[in-house]
């Protein structure tokens, strides 16, 4: 797979260089890129980020420092009406995006936010928000340990793996 016009900063690691498709992007110092990842032109991965396997960062996506991207995440890049390019998609420092989540183009995901696995983010996400579902909705604040969850979700999580809470 091609790797063309890529800026790799000190300590950046591409775990399987023959199994990525990186074009016209910047990979920050200490970042780690897994296999089968696509990163399109104009995108940047900040320092100490991890982009897990099978993820796609379309054009003009910018990850802040220390962002975690789980397996199979897609950040889209569809065009705005009248064929104008979409504004950049920005993921704030320290955010975590769960496996198979989708983030629509031109959005902002706040610093420290946590996007649950499989969520579809269709609107900007505040700093430190906990977002789950389709469409994605804020259900708590990660600084509170996510304690503002709906009762059914909190009960299921409390009994996870114990046979209780079912």
Main CATH class: Mainly Beta
- Tally the beta strands: 21
Distance between the termini: 46 Å
**Rg result:** 17 Å
Beta-sheet strand percentage? 25-35%
Side-by-side strand order of the widest sheet: 3-6-9-12-15-18-20-21
Biggest sheet descriptor: 8 strands, mixed
Please state the second-level CATH architecture. 3 Solenoid
Classify the helix fraction into a percent range.
Answer: under 10%
What is the total number of structural domains? 1
CATH superfamily: Hexapeptide repeat proteins
> Would you list the SSEs in sequence order as H and E?
EEEEEEEEEEEEEEEEEEEEEH
* Poorly predicted ranges: 152-166
CATH fold label: UDP N-Acetylglucosamine Acyltransferase, domain 1
Number of helices: 1
> Given the helix and strand composition, which structural class is it?
mainly beta
The rough form would be described as globular
Quick structural gist:
The chain is mostly beta strands and 166 residues long. The protein has one helix at residues 151-158; strands at 3-4, 7-8, 13-14, 21-23, 26-27, 32-33, 38-39, 44-45, 50-51, 56-57, 61-63, 68-69, 74-75, 89-91, 96-97, 102-103, 108-109, 114-115, 120-121, 129-132, 137-141. This is UDP-2-acetamido-3-amino-2, 3-dideoxy-D-glucuronate N-acetyltransferase.
Could you give the topology of this structure?
Layout: E1 3-4, E2 7-8, E3 13-14, E4 21-23, E5 26-27, E6 32-33, E7 38-39, E8 44-45, E9 50-51, E10 56-57, E11 61-63, E12 68-69, E13 74-75, E14 89-91, E15 96-97, E16 102-103, E17 108-109, E18 114-115, E19 120-121, E20 129-132, E21 137-141, H1 151-158
Parallel strand pairs: 1-4, 2-5, 3-6, 4-7, 5-8, 6-9, 7-10, 8-11, 9-12, 10-13, 11-14, 12-15, 13-16, 14-17, 15-18, 16-19, 18-20
Antiparallel strand pairs: 20-21
InterPro entries: Hexapep, Hexapep_transf_CS, Trans_hexapeptide_repeat, Trimer_LpxA-like_sf
Organism: Methylobacterium crusticola
Protein name: UDP-2-acetamido-3-amino-2, 3-dideoxy-D-glucuronate N-acetyltransferase
